[in-house]
Amino acid sequence: MEFKKILEQQSEAAWKKYIPTLSIDCVIFSFHETSLQVLTLKMKDQESWGLPGGYVQKDENVDDAAIRILKDRTGTENIYLQQFYTFGNLKRSESAFEDYPDDLWNKQRFVSIGYYALAEYSKVNLVIDEYSSACEWKSIDDLPPFMMDHKAIFEKALLTLREQLNNHPIGYNLLPEKFTMPELQKLYEIILDKKLNRGNFYRKILRYDILTKLDESRKGGAHKAPDLYRFDVEKYNIALKEGLKGSW
Description:
Layout: H1 3-17, E1 18-32, E2 35-43, E3 49-50, E4 53-57, H2 62-74, E5 80-87, E6 111-118, E7 132-139, H3 150-164, E8 179-180, H4 181-192, H5 198-207, E9 211-217, E10 227-231, H6 233-242
Parallel strand pairs: 1-6
Antiparallel strand pairs: 1-2, 1-4, 2-3, 2-7, 5-6, 8-10, 9-10
Organism: Flavobacterium chilense
InterPro entries: NUDIX_hydrolase-like_dom_sf (IPR015797), NUDIX_hydrolase_dom (IPR000086), WH-like_DNA-bd_sf (IPR036388), WH_DNA-bd_sf (IPR036390), WHD_NrtR (IPR054105)
Pfam family, one: WHD_NrtR
């Protein structure tokens, strides 16, 4: 069915089900093949790409709505989720529906609450729903054209993630359970978009006391096998709440 037909058929029900003028947009980051990725989708009959999003039900908390939207799109609830900004410029979304009836739910003015999420690549199941024709991970260095103001939403989410890296731990939801120190450093460098001194990084990350060194190493390669680590989840969660001192 055509995208326009789907929206027109569901508009009346949306007026009854959701809170008017309020929406949610999610920037879902992951780390794969030494690249920071963001989840994107293409709506049916549209050329541009967008971010996963949706609306808040009248009997639903805003954070619960974000969790529901993420689960619908990724098939998992075990994702780090953080509200980061509110987007409310004039015609940020309604201009995309100029050829639609004025009473269409989607054509109304919406203020959008932005959330960013961190997800482990291997645990995400990409879901193509009735509104979309594609749902794909894209490298942040090779993004497609975005619809509406979704490029600005993505850029603000990435800036927030980089700022958070200065005072909170990152990695538990982006790396596999066991990882090497070079892999963790590479993740930080890609997010921050700059090289970090190896010795300084090792000393600082170990001083945070959020890692557990394992009695095993990564096999393979010509050089000495690097030691494997995993996050101490209890200490990691404390650091998320209380913060870390210093910056990268």
